[in-house]
Amino acid sequence: LYGVRFETFPPGLRRELAGFTAEGGRLLVSGSHIGKELWSALPADSSGMRFARETLKCMWVTDHASRTGDVVTADTSFLPASTPIRFSTSVNDSIYAVESPEALGPARGGKTLLRYSENLFSAGIGYKGPYNIVVLGFPFETVVQPFQRTALMKATLRFLE
User: Fold this and answer.
1) For 77-86, how does the pLDDT look when each residue is reduced to its tens digit (9 = 90+)?
2) pTM for the model
3) How far is the C-alpha of 26 from the C-alpha of 38, rounded, in Å?
């Protein structure tokens, strides 16, 4: 239907996730429109920006942050430097192409875990505190190689422990 807009984080979901994390919940969030949607809602929605900063521990920097899909570690305690990650950026017959990966900056105690290799923009944010969270600026399921997906998921699960 024309005019229907899908939201990544509608207000009700934001409240539920904020409550979940307030109780010590652990969370992995990945996708291409996490930050931009929260930052560019019209009319301006300061509650979306506050949710990104306070709950997701990130802020939106830019979209279209990577053309190659190559990701490197920024924190070797998260993922060894020798572990390359590549997500799909071109149309193919096995997985969809990520058209608009995001650069997400850390906020309120968050830290950069991953970077796009071509420009060193932040590709992944992590936070450890009363709750733990990992936020990726690209969809996890688009990591091309199974061994890379496995390595990234293992690193994420260790971080979230």
Assistant:
1) 999 999 999 9
2) 0.93
3) 21
